[in-house]
Amino acid sequence: MAGLGGTPVLILKEGSQRTAGREAQRSNIMAAKAVASAVRTTLGPKGMDKMLVDTLGDVVITNDGVTILKEMDIEHPAAKMMVEIAKTQDEEVGDGTTTAVVLAGELLKQAEQLLEQEIHPTVIAAGYRAAAEKSMQILKEIGIKVSPNDSELLKKVAITAMTGKGSGTARFQLAELTVKSVKAIVDDDGSVDIDNITVEKKVGGSIGDSQLIHGMVIDKERLHPNMPKKVKDARIALLNTPIEIEKTEVDAKIEITSPDQLQAFLNQEETMLKDMVNKIMASGANVVFCQKGIDDLAQHFLAKAGIYTIRRVKKSDIEKLARATGARIVTSIQELSSSDLGKAGLVEERKIAGDDMTFVEECENPKSVSIILRGGTEHVVDELNRAMEDALRVVGVVIEDGMLVAGGGAPEVELALRLREYAATVGGREQLAIEAFADAMEIIPKTLAENAGLDQIDSLVALRSKHEKGVKSAGLDMDSGQPVDMTEMGVVEPLRVKTQAINSAADAAVMILRIDDVIASKSGGPGMPGGRPPGMEGGMGEDFD
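The structure assignment produced for this chain is given below.
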């Protein structure tokens, strides 16, 4: 609304809300802090789990930051930005989602105190950006180089990623599966595409029954009971075309006047199907994976020929099969030749947890592998799957980058120490913002200590003392509460997890800080600033702080 000669002029639609200045900043910061405090208790190996129930009554039990935030029904625009941080972290690195969100929340909390001291948001933003840049330099200096062939160190990275995520004592066995599977799919240029690892979840058995298949597992059974259950020295054809009589594009009517003509017509169809199967046999294939449908009669001919066949295989599975067996995907049966076939030592149908599945094993140099995860209940298997995904991604990142940092809050304490030294050289008001950034870094070791039932201040003071003496990899031992060299304990994580988390947290904090006016249209609903963010009723922040 604007005044014009004493007459009010309405600019916004009726029912629109506008929050400006300090009130808008306070509302945005409050929402972001509430999101951070929601996931804060899940951080670290001693972190607690959350139970999330959606509108359909489905239950998810997890301590994976990004899963919690995706499941929560968040409406507040600033809170949504915090969810974006977690999603980006998950896509880029796969781990460290909780760290990124908790850091962003703490950066905003520190900024709030600076705003109360009448320091302008632009100054804080400039200080935060300078501190984030300096952090990248420091992290590169304290990073540890690792060889992609160092399996023991890669296993430690996988164990660190899985710790506290429901894997329990089985994490050592799962870490071994992780490292073997990632090393199998490394491309010639050193890049790692985790999509080439298929993870199949099966309820039943124990976590220890999980296994790695050097090849593919497809959640389908053979088409016909007369087909062989087991094929050794398999020669595999991958078809992207149906084994059926194609319907004509043109509408045509065929008039049949006598039974002989009908029989001839049916015989012709049968002959065409038989020709297709003969063509497959002529290529030397004894296993067929078809992406499309297969006619019942063709199934009969294939069974008679003793060819193990599966139809309607997913496109992604066909592509992975091509990588695993060296086969070429063929789009025309007439073009199929022996050079298009892939090889596998064994193709077999086996029953796992009551379901028939097809195993394609003993491939020579599989560039696509499968992991079967087992667990006592559906919730256990789901959480195990999330832990496995994190572990696969971080091991892939380490193989690509070849750089690690210590875990247990060690890099954050080192950053805080070095950033305070850097702040003294900057001077001016930006110095305060850099110091605030350094203070915010310490939220990670503080939270780790709190979640392990230790005293925050004692733990932090002990850690600072170690770092001041030059022990750069000193982190918090969750059992004893003492500072310990994390690299010796084997608690390590990829450098990219930290750089991505700090960059994302700083960018989001700066963006939220620079908003001084929120104009919400009528459809913005009650989640807009001015009220409490929906999806967070009951003061989510209060329960955790």
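Interim note for the steering committee: DSSP finds 18 helices and 21 strands in the chain. The chain has two domains: 13-145+406-534, 216-365.
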